[in-house]
Amino acid sequence: MNSEGALPTKVLVVDDERALAAVIASYLTRAGHQVSQAHTGPEALDQARAEDPDVIVLDLGLPGLDGIEVCRQIRTFSDCYILILTARGDEVDRLIGLSVGADDYLTKPFSNRELVARVQTVLRRPRRPPAAAPAVEDQRVFGDLRIDAAGHEVWIGDHPVALTRTEFDILDVLSAQPRLALSRRQLIDAVWDTAWVGDEHVVDVHVANLRKKLDDDPTEPRYITTIRGVGYRMGRG
């Protein structure tokens, strides 16, 4: 729920099952959000551009343009949170959805209260960094990797690296405490929220995507090391 006087957060619900979309929208509206709906891939893209939502609840099985491609295209113009909806057993689509920029996923069937809770949880994360001059301590360097924590920018050498918000946030948490091994749960608490519930292995997918973008081989890591039985830490293996 938004604080008194604050503008309502905007949520776009995208699902070709109109009855389900309407039910989801009603729950989110009751939770205090401004909700719109789209039922095809092209509609979702048009409304995302026109409305600039804070969160998109995106079903992957859409007519006109599938949800994965919709997610990919939205990431070219928006940093909104994307929560994808997948059918039970659609692990490949789920992984692809996360790899092209989705922040989280929910597996059908789900309770509408759980979905509302997930939306509320992601909204606790700031959408954009506050405008401020980067402090010296916010410039973190690990070999060729440079992280501007305040500016939300990452470079390998002189080349900028485009990360999703979730990928950057994971890198930010790890790089802020180098050499400290953090478990999946600790990363979830820091990046998502302590109230987040779901499959903790979502962290592994985002870390894998992050490593690909940093060209960081997990068998010979330069930046992010897996600590077996614990989690991840910043630094060479």
Automatic annotation (TrEMBL):
CDD domains: REC_OmpR, trans_reg_C
Superkingdom as given in the UniProt entry: Bacteria
Cited SUPFAM superfamilies: CheY-like
Keywords: DNA-binding, Phosphoprotein, Transcription, Transcription regulation, Two-component regulatory system
Transmembrane segments: none
DNA-binding region: 137-236
Alphabetized InterPro entries for the sequence: CheY-like_superfamily, OmpR/PhoB-type_DNA-bd, Sig_transdc_resp-reg_receiver, WalR-like, WH-like_DNA-bd_sf
Cellular component terms per the entry's GO annotation: cytosol; protein-DNA complex
GO molecular function terms attached to this record: phosphorelay response regulator activity; transcription cis-regulatory region binding
Domain named Response regulatory: residues: 10-123
Chain ranges of the OmpR/PhoB-type domain: 137-236
Modified residues (4-aspartylphosphate): D59
Gene Ontology annotations of biological process type: regulation of DNA-templated transcription
Keyword match Cell division: no
Name of the protein: DNA-binding response regulator
Organism encoding this protein: Propioniciclava flava
Species classification: Bacteria, Bacillati, Actinomycetota, Actinomycetes, Propionibacteriales
